[in-house]
Amino acid sequence: MRFTVRSGQGDIGGFNPGDQAVTGDLGTADSAGHVPDQGMVIYLSVVQLLASLVQFLRGNARLLNFTGADTTFGLVVRRANDGLSVVGKGGVVARTAARALASVVLRAADDLGLGRALSPEEPITSEGKPPLPRSSSSYRARRGERRAPG
After folding, report:
1. What is the pTM of this model?
2. Which residue has the higher pLDDT, 139 or 63?
3. What HEC string does the chain produce?
4. Which of 14, 18, 37, 143 is the most exposed place for a label (fewest CB within 10 A)?
């Protein structure tokens, strides 16, 4: 998973356009290079993906249908007996375990700089569930994980 801010946009801020790419053993889904444009408001989209993915992984839903902010680009995550399938418009791009998907998304959010940009003191809450830290580094700390250097 990779999140990128498009170049030539000036100072980095909450509404920068960007792209999302997911590459797996079975293919790639990428918002870049399409007509019409499928770029998204990248920072809002990543926060939205983190929040919806946590709710999905904590819950019992069989399907997560994610579309980024201000885009038609989307991903579908399907729960199966043997793990998760990640699907783009072209079909299945990866089959993976829940923990592996969460780790990849968190690493991509950290690489974009969201681990530093969002306050861990402002949790997103869901009914009957512990609060979700808005910072990926805070999320990792609560889970007892450390990010590998590099």
Report:
1. 0.75
2. 63
3. CEEEECCCCCCCCCCCEEEEEEEECCEEEECCCCCCCCCEEHHHHHHHHHHHHHHHHHCCCCEEEEECCCCCCEEEEEEECCEEEEEECCEEEEEECHHHHHHHHHHHHHHHCHHHHCCCCCCECCCCCCCECCCHHHHHHHHCCCCCCC
4. 14
35-55 pLDDT tens trace: 999 999 999 999 999 999 999
Q: Is the pLDDT of residue 78 over 60?
A: yes
Cα separation, 131 vs 149, in Å, equals 27
Residue type for position 94: A
